[in-house]
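ok so I'm stuck.
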Amino acid sequence: MTSGASVKVRDLVHRHVGQEVPIRVAGLEIESGEKVAITGPSGCGKTTLLSCIAGILVPSAGEVAVGDTRVDQLGESARRKFRREQIGLVFQEFELLEHLDVRENAFLPLWLAGREPSTEEQEKFIGRATRCGISDLLQRKPRALSQGERQRAAVCRALMTSPTLVLADEPTGSLDATSGRVVLDLIFEEAEITGATVIVVTHDTTMLSGFDRIENIGEDPA
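replied:
not stuck anymore, here's the structure
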């Protein structure tokens, strides 16, 4: 079992273009292997926080550390490598490539790392897809999927590399309560097996069971 990545955020500020008030997070510490839900009102910076942790956005100020890596100090190519090797991402808008089918989208993180999925990895993917109810959709392109099917495909892709840190932005937002619980339970169970740390942004209070704790980042502080 691999060890999950700890996460530390200090005095984080990110100024969106054209936005006068910056997004601020004074401090957040998540231990290795924790499952943490991030809640808060719309516009308070939940998605921005995940993007800074993943190195998609570079904060205007502050520190972001994942394990021993200061993500905010990495260059662009180093951030891409960091995401590829350590992070499993579930984007709010899914970010599936339209010219690839579900199976190809899931295998893409491995291809970007320069290798083909092993037999074991392929079998695990089929198991996840079956559990999520999309095993009969693996050769379909994203445009042929419903929003909920796209969401489940994105979750299966995020788990493909057995990441040390799973970052999921509203992973149940397009799902009914039953399907949403299946997806979260899958993420939690995989994290238990691999030791991964899990951070989930959610507004759905019915999905908060199973997390070790809940962090409400609230409004931008005065």
